[in-house]
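Running this now, will post back.
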Amino acid sequence: MPVKTTLDFLRLQGDALWAGGEFTAKLLADPVLDQIAPRGDGATPVLTLPGFSGPEMSLRPLNRFLNRRGFVADSWGLGINRGPESMEYIATLGTLLGDRIKAMADENGKAVSLIGQSLGGVYARELGRLFPEDVDRVITLGSPANLRAGNHHLINSGVRLASRVMMGRPVEELLNEAEIEELALHEPPEGVPLIAIYSPYDGVVHEEAAVIPEEYLNVAGEAPRENIEIICSHIGMGVNPLVLLAVADRLVEDKDDWKAFSALEYVPTPLQGLPKLFFPETALMAQSSYVR
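Update: finished.
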């Protein structure tokens, strides 16, 4: 077995173990989160999309947290995310979820926020592009939305092997198809705010593939686009208490008066140095790469 493949499998196992710790951390942090996390208005609809090979229940803790905080959150309703076999699947996904997104928007009187973990975030971006009038914003969690043919190595070898089994085709073959490469290289959805939460220690998707490219970043204008770096695992992003805090914060941010996320707002003055341990760039309020 090649050295890189061996290391990737070890990274994947480490990521899974880390995620278990994050789930425990969430249980312990729930009382604090319920005190400090922003509240929704009781009518802000949120649709969550699981990652590749992930069942709907993988994002149940996220949905429960958001519902407790006054959002109207629900899962996509399509079961396990088995991945796309071709570009046509995106159109099929639009057919399967388009009516539901519109119904949620109509029922609550507000456009729907989409949250997708990993591959679910790639789908969420495309749904935002297909239904810009009914999608309020898109939040991706460790999503490989900045892939292109030739850099499939930015995805863990173990996940690429799983994709070959579940989809019947390797990731690199999909990326080498023009239409799939076009999907991966698409600029962010026009007119729809996009927030990419990523980790430099992600054991599945390299941060280079998970961030919004610098040329698209901005915290002003019609569609703010923002990267938020959080020290966390890939698998545990849907339960990590710091990710949950950032998600709630971005869900209530005013699109017309957007301010970049700052973890400092949730930390007492004597502890202002702590966010640097978990939100390296955000805590330092690094905005130099944002287009103003």
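Strands lie at 44-49, 71-75, 112-117, 135-141, 194-198, 225-229. More later if anyone needs it.
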